[in-house]
Amino acid sequence: MVRRIFWMAVGAGATVWAMNKANEAVHRLTPDSLSGTAARGALHLGDAAKRFARDVRTGMVEREEQLRADLGLDGTAVVEPPRRRAPLRGEPTYRAISAAPGSPAAALPPSRSTRTTPQALDSPSRRLDELPGGPNRKDH
Questions:
Q1: Most exposed among 7, 93, 137, 140, judged by the fewest C-beta atoms under 10 Å?
Q2: Can you list the positions of beta strands (E) in the chain?
Q3: What is the DSSP annotation of 45-65?
Q4: How far apart are the C-alpha atoms of 60 and 54, rounded to whole Å?
């Protein structure tokens, strides 16, 4: 007799538990509950997107400050004048073409070489009859 009462109580408890689970499932699947769940999910997604955008903006500002400091755009860099490299032996030195008074080129020391441009020695001189339109043209 005690066994029967025990199993009847277990069965009644399982029935109550199953009915509660079924009612919860029915309540979750109603249109109002589904729309509320979707709205809460959308709000959560929007909050997450705002946090992400804020983190990206913060990271951009930090990186920009770091780049400005590295490049000296924030006024902390010491600018050294460019160093002039001494020409190697045999390397030609070039001067500006015009040295008008008051121009920076007038302050340069005179050139020791007779060569003024790299093209002066690199291109062989051509005779006039070898040029296009010279004496060998057939349309005279």
A1: 140
A2: none
A3: HHHHHHHHHHHHHHHHHHHHH
A4: 10
pTM (2 d.p.)? 0.37
Side chain identity at residue 10, one-letter code: V
Cβ neighbour number for residue 92 with a 10 Å cutoff: 15
Q: Three-class SS string for 65-108?
A: HHHHHHHCCCCCCCCCCCCCCCCCCCCCCCCCCCCCCCCHHHHC
Distance, CA of 27 to CA of 101 (rounded, Å): 94
Q: What is the pLDDT of residues 3-58, one digit of tens each?
A: 899 999 999 999 999 999 999 988 888 888 888 889 999 999 999 999 999 999 99
Structure tokens that stand for 38 in this block: 């979707």
Torsion angle in degrees (nearest 10) through CA of 16, 20, 26, 29: -150
Instruction: Please name which of 24, 23, 4, 1 lies closest in space to residue 12, comparing C-alpha atoms.
Output: 4
